[in-house]
Amino acid sequence: MNPVDSVDSQPTDRTIDRRSFVNRFAVLAAATSLGAVALPAVAHAAPPAVVPAGINPNAYGDVRPEALADITELTIAEAASLIRQGRLSAELLVEAYLDRIGAFDADYQAFNLVAADDALASARALAGAAYKGPLHGIPLAIKDNYYTRAYPTTANSYIFKDFTPPFDATAVSKLTGAGGIVLGKTQMGPLATTRATTPDGRITTVNAWTPADPRTNPGGSSSGSATAVAGRMATSSVGTQTGGSITAPSNAQNLTGLKPTMGRVSLYGIIPLSYTRDHPGPLARDAKDAAIMLGAMAGEDPNDPRTLGLPPVPDLITAATPVKRGNKVAMRWGTRVGVIPDFTAGSSETAAARKAFLDKLAGIEGIQVVDVRLPEDWDTLTSTAFNNVRLPERSEPFLPILRKDLRSFGVSVTGWLQGSMLGATEYVLGQRAKVLLLERVLDDLFEQCDVVLQTSPNPFDAIGLPELALPIGFDSAGVPVGTILGGQPFAEDRLLAVAAAYQAVTDWHLRRPANPAGEVPEPISVDPSKSRKPFAKSARGRVSAAPAPQGRGRLEAHEVAELSQ
After folding, report:
1. Contact, 362 vs 477, CB < 8 A?
2. pLDDT of 93 above 80
3. Under DSSP, is residue 188 helix (H, G, I), strand (E, B) or coil?
4. Are strands 256-259 and 279-284 parallel, antiparallel or unpaired?
5. Which of 19, 49, 70, 468 has its CA 20 to 30 A from that of 223?
6. DSSP label of 138
7. Phi and psi dihedrals of 238, rounded to 5?
8. Is the distance from CB of 272 to CB of 565 less than 8 angstroms?
9. What residues contact 530, with CB distance under 8 A and at least 6 apart?
10. Structure-derived torsion over alpha carbons of residues 260, 248, 469, 295, reported in degrees to the nearest 10
11. What DSSP letter does each residue of 24-58 carry, written as one string?
12. Taking 70 as the threshold, does the pLDDT of residue 37 lie above it?
């Protein structure tokens, strides 16, 4: 077994009283018209292990040779090992990413602001500071709906185009307090609706795996955050999910994305889309990195009542550390992975990748792959009609602007109009349907399994349950194929353990896309004896995004409404 394995006794989902989570969710659904209210606590047995005091040794490990040769290949865990040992400086790591941003972001359009000088200054300041843990000196990309007091927060919209917040979002302050360095803000769907475009719909961010083909969707509204990590312009990033905008970009770009349980991470200081469905979370290179990020972001925040009265954050890093019994990888806890009907149906490349994924899972000791039946009235309760109950929640805060000037919403206006016209009876019925759906998922679906495979983020987004996206292969065009694991309330530790076990026996998550055409900066090695010439195109100063390239196409309002999360 690995060190610090006291977490092995039981995962968090075995300590949670499901009924108390349903009661809390019902109050949250009813509270949308009241704003901040006190929510009932989630009853739970004392977790067997929480985050260890001091530095968790499971956050560090061996570094791959290819990552030693090019430090933009490093995962958080690898970079943390080198920084902690004094073999790599945060300043050099920032420099390496600024080289790639300068060389390639005109093609990728992942960032709408790069704070190069500030990032370098932060890295230099950390050189003389006490070591803060695995995020110490790690360069991060922040989605542009997270408040940042030093930089504008636009949500890529006309409404917020001149807005600079007076404080950082709680999640941002937690990341920087843990030693993370903000490289810049990322492109996103206007007001967090669809793939990244300008507010008037011109496509900006491309998928890092197909930079010359803008038709390949980079994912949902967190697509800039995904492309920044996939294109090796940041070690990790954060996004938000209301209807798939962490899991979809992660699946589209070969990343491991984690959408936590509602309330696990504070939404304070994040421009809202839906009071009952917004979830902040990390987009990372593997399960260990996702655990490091979420561990830093998670926890109570008195400014967000959704974070209060919850079980303590468990030791996510150890949960995401692969276990070996003898010479074979094994699952940390015995886990039944549920396969929904038609998960592998058909002869598509995606179906083939899913079959191979299931075969690999079934070969891991401690994992049992089981077929599950869906709860009664599943199709009705997960239909578009009930899913649209989210729309009034986005419209209500913006009603004065809707009445004054529809043009302020740009290409995403249709969703706001739909929300303003949904009747009160339909809205209340939809909220009641969500509670019924949650009851049936917990009482019926999770009686058959511990983790369930999904083909869509819906309905787990709607009912506040955690999801983890991970890569499982590629299609014949070289575009990543991923899947989504869904868990019980606060089961992030079990989801991470499944992903870690799978990633220990596969290498999909280690594959990186080719660079766009053009001048390529010389890789920066960990070896201090290998000097290099300064790269002329390295990002410097504070750089706003270049204008959206011509010829990438645009999304019309009806397309945004169809794709909107």
Report:
1. no
2. yes
3. coil
4. antiparallel
5. 70
6. -
7. -125, 150
8. no
9. none
10. -40
11. HHHHHHHGGGT-S---PPPPBPPPS-BSPSS--GG
12. no
What local confidence, expressed as pLDDT, does residue 6 receive? 45
* Whether residue 538 lies in the annotated active site: no
Q: How far apart are CA 295 and CA 211, in angstroms?
A: 32
Judged by DSSP in three states, 481 sits in strand
pLDDT, tens digit (0-9, with 9 covering 90-100), for 444-474: 999 999 999 999 998 999 999 999 999 999 9
Instruction: Determine what percent of the chain is predicted with pLDDT higher than 90.
Output: 74
* Phi and psi, residue 455, nearest 5°: -105, -5
Q: 196, exposed or middle or buried, with CB in 10 Å at 0-12, 13-18, 19+?
A: buried
Tokens of 226: 């995904």
Using CA atoms in the order 254, 255, 256, 262, what is the torsion angle rounded to 10 degrees? -120
Cα angle 226, 280, 223 (rounded to 5 degrees) comes to: 20
The terminus-to-terminus CA distance of the chain in angstroms comes to 41
Q: Which pLDDT score, from 0 to 100, does residue 329 have?
A: 97
From the list 221, 250, 412, 564, the catalytic residue is 221
**Is the C-alpha dihedral spanning 409, 414, 416, 420 positive or negative?**
positive
Catalytic residue of the set 157, 173, 225, 245? 245
**Which segments of 428-496 are extended strands (E)?**
451-454, 467-474, 480-486
Cα angle 149-244-273, degrees, rounded to a multiple of 5: 45
Give Cα 528 distance to the centre of its chain.
34
DSSP assignment letter at 441: I
Phi, psi dihedrals of residue 86, rounded to the nearest 5°:
80, 15
* Token pair of 329 as six digits: 């990888």
DSSP classification of residue 161: T
- State yes or no: is 245 an active-site residue: yes
Look up residue 425 and give its two tokens.
């009876």
**Run of H or E including 336:** strand 328-339
Note the pLDDT tens digit of each residue in 476-534.
Answer: 999 999 999 999 999 999 999 999 999 999 999 999 999 998 889 999 999 877 777 78
CA distance 124 to 120: 6
Reported as a single tens digit per residue, the pLDDT across 247-272 is 999 999 999 999 999 999 999 999 99
The count of other CB atoms within 10 Å of the CB of residue 517 is 10
Asked whether 59 and 80 are in contact (CB, 8 A), the reply is yes
Q: Give the mean pLDDT of 96-123.
A: 96
Nearest to 191 by CA among 247, 272, 114: 272
Please report the pLDDT score of residue 65 as a whole number.
96
143, 185, 288, 434: the catalytic one is: 143
Task: Give dist(CA 427, CA 119) in Å, integer.
Answer: 45
Instruction: Provide φ and ψ at 542, rounded to 5°.
Output: -115, 110
**Which one-letter DSSP state was computed for residue 7?**
G
Task: Report the distance separating Cα 300 and Cα 171, nearest Å.
Answer: 11
Report residue 1 as tokens: 């077994």
CA 467 to chain CA centroid, Å, is: 10
Residues 468, 487: contact at Cβ < 8 Å? yes
> What type of residue sits at position 242?
T
